[in-house]
Each structure stands twice: as structure tokens, then as C-alpha cells.
Design brief:
Elements (H helix, E strand, L loop, with lengths): L1 H18 L4 E3 L1 H11 L1 H22 L4 E10 L5 E5 L12 E5 L4 E14 L1 H68 L5 H36 L7 E3 L3 H7 L16 H22 L4 E14 L12 E11 L7 H67 L5 H36 L1
Parallel strand pairs: 1-6
Antiparallel strand pairs: 2-5, 3-4, 5-7, 7-8
Helix pairs in contact: 2-4, 3-4, 4-5, 4-7, 4-9, 5-9, 6-9, 7-8, 8-9
Length: 445
Amino acid sequence: MKIKITVFLFLLSTIQVFSQTETASFTLKQAIEQAQKNNYSVINANRDLELAKQKKWETTTMGLPQLNGSVNYQNTFEFTKQGAAANAFNPMANPNDIMLLAFGTKHVAIGNLTLSQLIFDGSYLVGLQSAKTYLKISENAKEKTNQEIKEIVINSYGNVLLADESILIINKNKTVLEKILSDTKEIYKNGLIEEETIEQLQITLNSVNNALENVTKQRVIALNMVKLLLGINLEEPIILTEKLNDLTQNNIDLQLLISEFNVTENIDYKIGKNVEESKQLLVKLEKSKGLPSLGAQVNFGYNAFSNDFSFMNATQKWSNFSNVGVGLNVPIFSSGGRNSRVQQAKIDLEKSRTQLTETEQKLKLQYQKAKSDYEYSINQYNNAQANLKLAERIEAKQQIKFKEGLSSSFDFAEAQKQLYSAQQEALQAMLEIINKKATLEKLVN
């Protein structure tokens, strides 16, 4: 009996272990990798790329041999009559009389195979080039999507870490404040301080509690944003393993501030270049429409005729036919229409070149701003850390003075507010370094 109970407990514990699902955890790098595989926009960008590959092959096949087959069957209920002079078949008949004749058989069956081949068409050659450009556009669009998702993941990941650190600091402040309030109430009971002092501390504590409630809610929203970006169901729990301070230190890279900016490597510039190439191809396409096109085809087939449906019979006679043909189409005169379309395409090409120049200048300006913002975020972080230390010392001195009755509750509350503000500014400065570096790297890479 003891053996049975032991086996049962073992099986029960095994089931419990296997029924527990392990919570997924992500470093920032892992979160970016996850998003670049499972983010909804990335998934569709991959599909667009695959679509472009299929489109390229579809365009290529237009110049390859095409084989088509057809089977036709016709059952004539009533023949079309043709009129002829009566003496055409009977010399003795009155030439003014009309004889009605019906030609054909009641049942007709035809089977046919056609092999066609495009020999030369300028539009097809341009189409092949356009398909390659379209593929490059899709590849660059996918790269741009990956870069944008990476930046958003970094920002969102940082927001969760900011909320985590804020909750820790606010809870710490709350614990200290509750202890001071409790001690102050005891002093008030002895009649050594006024009730206003307690009220002032209570106001500060209420503000801290409200801030804690708000940042806790914001953390839930920020974490759900990360899940959405990673393609994870919002109901599934995840853990972000990075710490805000560690991530900040890893993102302080002064070498990035002296790196060269090659605008032609920027994805927005590449996309602008793709647009220019597509406009050039449109000019070629319009010009190619003035060139001759040449094609050829070969037909093979069988047909059979019968007044009864006897096509399945072995005795049914089938006649074969075949032919070969070559077609040449030569555009001769369009009243200036083709030339007008060429000129329109050229104007669009010039517009795309102007837009590319504008894009280049905008990117250089964006780089200057991103570089300046990143450098400022590092300086701001250093200042915020220094200010935080000062605010902590000031608050600590005011706390001692307040406990000894040498400082008013108003002065102590002001020192606390200054400390809380310095704490949030320090955390925000950390997040700014992470975000500004991500923006700069997106431009450089």
C-alpha cells in the first residue's frame, strides 16, 4: 500500500512539474532578435520580399517558351444557310431561283497545342530590369522595417526598465516617509509640534502613493507594448533581464560621436536611389515602345467531323494539322503620343533626382541633430547624477534638522520634492542615452 501511495505522489509531482510553463525572459539583444523574427510588421515585410521574388520570376517567364493546349467541341443544332444561284448545281434550273445550302457536320471536335516564343520585345527587356529593381526595393523596405522595429524595441524595453527603477525608488521613498510620519505623530501626541507638520507630511505621502500607482499602471502598458513588438500574446508573462543602469553604461560610446557618416549607406538614401532607378526604367520603357517586337509560334492539332457523336469510336477518323508563324509588330506613327510619354517620364526622373538630393541633405541634418542629442544626453546624465547626489545630501541634512526640530516641515517637504525630482531626472537621463544612441545608430547603420 505504501508503494502505491509513493508512486501516486511521484506521478502527481511529475505532472505538476510538466504542467508549469517556463516564463520567457529576454535581454535587450534577445528582444531585438525576437522582434525581427516575429513582429507582425516584420512578418509582412518578409512576405512582401517573397512576393517580389515571385513577381521577378513571373516577369522572367514572359520571355520563355509558352505551351498552351485547348480542346473544343461543337454541336450544331441548326446550320447556317448560305444562298446560291439554283443553276450553280443544276444547269437546267432557273438562274433567278435561289438555292439554300448548309455546310458542315453536326458534331465537330478539335484538339490543339500551341508553342509560342517571344523573340524580341524592348518592353520585356525593361521589364526584367524593373523586376530586379522591384526586388531591391522590397529588400530595402524589409531592412528599413527591421531598423525601425529595433529602435522601437529599444525605446519600449527602456520604458519598462525605467518603470521598474521608478517603482523601486518610490517604494524606498515611501518607506522612509512613512517612518518619519509615524515618528512625527508620536512627537505630536506629546504636544511638541503642531498638527500642520503632520498634515504636510501626509500631503507628501499622498503624492508619493499616487505616483507609485501611476507608474505601476504605466509599467503594465509598457510591458504589453514590448510583447506586441515581439509578437507575443499580451496574456503571456515575460521577464526583461536587463537593468537600466547597466544598459545605460553599455550605451555610452564616445567613439560613435567621432565616426564618419556615409549617407549612401543609409537605408532612406538607398530607397531614394531605388525610386530614381525605377524612374530611369520608366523612361526606357516608354522609349522601348517605339521598337519593333517579334514573336513566333507553332501549332499542332487534330480535328474530326461527324453527323453522329462518334468521337470515342475507334473507327472515327481524325485529321491532323500544323503550322508555324512569325509575327512582327512595327510602330510607325503615333502623332507624337510616344514622345510625349517619354518626356513625361523624363520629368518624373528629374523630380526623383531632386527628391534624392533633398533626402541626402535631410539625412545629413538629421545626423548632426542625432549626434548632438546623443552627446547632450551623455552630458545631461552626468549632470543628473551630480544633482542627485546633491539632492540626497540636502534631503538627508533636512531630515536630521526636521527630527531635531531645527527645520520646518515646509523646508523638509521642499527638500523631499527636490530629491524626488532629481531621482526622476536621473532615471530619465539614463533612458535618453539609450534612446538617443538608438536613433544615431539607425542613421549611421
